[in-house]
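Readers of this paper often ask what the protein records in our data store actually look like. An entry from our holdings is shown next, in its original layout:
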Amino acid sequence: MDNIYKDIPGNLSDEVTEILLNTDIIRIERIISNGQSSPDNFWYDQKENEWIIVLKGKAELLFETGNEIVNLVEGDYLNIPSHKKHKVQWTIPGTETLWLAIFY
């Protein structure tokens, strides 16, 4: 058994993504951010649906359609349909933001 809150890397100069489970129909990732955001001209355009929850910290997502901004705090979750272009606009600098992402 593992724990989602344990073994957080000490150096978070880059965002850390770890695959916790990967099958033909589902992928579960733990993502740890520390002030990181997506590059200016980059959009996620994923073939899978993605369900995310912020377990620790805060984040802001930007969706290309309508420039919609979604602010997420601990406990907030969101389903992002496949090919809905989005990016991480902001995470808290100097503080871990811990995400759980489920791709299906």
Remarks:
- The chain has no helices and eight strands.
